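Researcher: Re-running this chain for the archive, since the previous output was lost when a drive failed. Same request as before.
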Amino acid sequence: MKKIISIMIVCLCVVALAGCGFGLGTNFYGNYADAGKYSVGDFTYNAEDVNTVEINWVGGEIEIVQSENATLSVTENGDSLDSEEQIHHYIRAGKLIIHYCESGHRGEINSAKKKLRVEIPEGVDLDIDNVSADITFGEINVSDFELTNVSGDVTFAGITAKDIDIEIVSGKIDAKSVCARAFSVNGVSGNINAAKIDADEIDIEIVSGKTELVLARACEIDVSGVSGNVDITLPSGVGAEVELDSVSGDLHSDIWQSQVCFERGKTYLVEADSGKGKSTFCSYLIGYRNDYSGHVRFDSEDVSAYSPSRWADIRQKHISFKDTFSRNLCKAPGSNVFTAGICINLYTCSIIFT
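Model: Regenerated structure tokens:
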């Protein structure tokens, strides 16, 4: 968890800069480079002039929406704020940088007047560094997305990006839909709820809290943590490899309540802690047990009427298990790491488990 520890240290430093002054009697909002080149207040740029948007924010609220025009516009609601308290912005080589207030400002800023609204064009890189503001996203389509969040809740109506990288200390992440090549969340605590995830890679690393993932498609899922619960819902027919690394907490899979398809010519790793049903599940697949509700089909043919001789033929010619139930250890395809599980090889048939 070295990365998480470093996040905590960095975030504590940010709070020290943006917080209560630690005995100084006033808030200090930090310094930033090229302060003299920044403009003040609301603004609009041509979208073609901006390829990256960087937002550095402390408190209040942030709303991010997709621009319907060929422009990028930013407004905040604090009309009565002094100029040093208003947003400061600067564009350099296609990168738009937005800061909460004037560089080096000391004083109290009413966070209720710091409600930022940003309309971004499609396809830009978006990088947000936030201390405590709640952030709301409409449906956005960006190139690369990075969010560092100390506290405050983050809500996505929908996000599409090449890579999504979120680092949090606390707070809640709620996404109604996620589409990306890689979706990564790294944090200390807080809850993560992401639905309709369409990604090649999903990497969740969190110390504590609850993680709920609903997959539309995924090739690889890696979840690690110290405590808390992980709930992963796999839709019918999804092809996914799930790796869980946890000190405590629970993993809940909907495999028993949904349709799962195992395709011919592939190897699958059935992985779970001892006593969680691996052997039972595999016994259903090869006809050793039939005390279940639902159906098992080989190439769309229900196995409930199979004779003992037919089952013997299936086990000899069509399906096998690497390693033994007693030892219960095997390696995932392409991996050198042994894990608790059973590897299933399918030679000439596909299995649908419903």
